[in-house]
Amino acid sequence: MRSLRLLQGLVLLCILLVPVAIIVFLKTFGNNRYDIPILFEDGVENPFMECDVVESGQHYIPEFTLTSQNNEQKGSKDMSGKITIVDFFFTSCPSICPVMSSEMERVDDAFRNQEDVQIFSISIDPEYDTPEVLNEYAQRHNATPGKWFFLTGDKSQIYNLARCGFILPTLDGGGVPDDFVHSDKFILVDELGRIRGYYSGTNRDEVDRLILETKILLHGKN
């Protein structure tokens, strides 16, 4: 009988200690934060001196202006104060671009009603990808007007922007679609123009992570 009472007492004590344990856990671990890194805080490596970049100190997206599918001027000034998701593609791409654009549709849909999030899809084949071609491509992918911009412009500016601004590998294919080389990465840029992450635009899990981290940055702005 005594052992039974002792057992009952221990069970009651454990029950009473559960709320205490929960409170201690929340106080100890409840303030943990999901930190999203700020990339290139110490500058960008520039061994061949091909880029006009700051080699020490925070790297920011440089000034640029391109033309959208609606013949509007869009660029770095429109990124200020907004979270921008960027990719480089071309409409005649036979390989990774269709997958990337389909995944970007998911990103567009996730932030359809968020004014502080926008998407820049920049063509690396601007000679073919005129605003008219981009407009048709935007409609094909159900791009949200005023949020998902498809951009074209001067080829040398775009390639320099990809390599030296967004720090991505990009090679001209000379008009042959199979010979263009570009990254499959989606780039997350914060409202100050700092790169916060790279995500494979052909990997659904990576795109899910991009959506999550964009939401975290968006929450941090408010």
Automatic annotation (TrEMBL):
Any Pfam family matching the protein: SCO1-SenC
PANTHER family noted in UniProt: ELECTRON TRANSPORT PROTIN SCO1/SENC FAMILY MEMBER, LINALOOL DEHYDRATASE_ISOMERASE DOMAIN-CONTAINING PROTEIN
Lineage, uppermost ranks: Bacteria, Pseudomonadati, Bacteroidota, Cytophagia, Cytophagales
InterPro entries recorded: SCO1/SenC, Thioredoxin-like_sf, Thioredoxin_domain
Record's keyword annotation contains Transmembrane helix: yes
Family membership: Belongs to the SCO1/2 family.
Name used for this protein in its record: SCO family protein
Keywords: Copper, Membrane, Transmembrane, Transmembrane helix
PROSITE patterns: THIOREDOXIN_2 (PS51352)
Membrane-crossing residue ranges in chain numbering: 6-26
Coiled coil (residue ranges): none
Annotated CDD domains: SCO
Segments forming domain Thioredoxin: 55-216
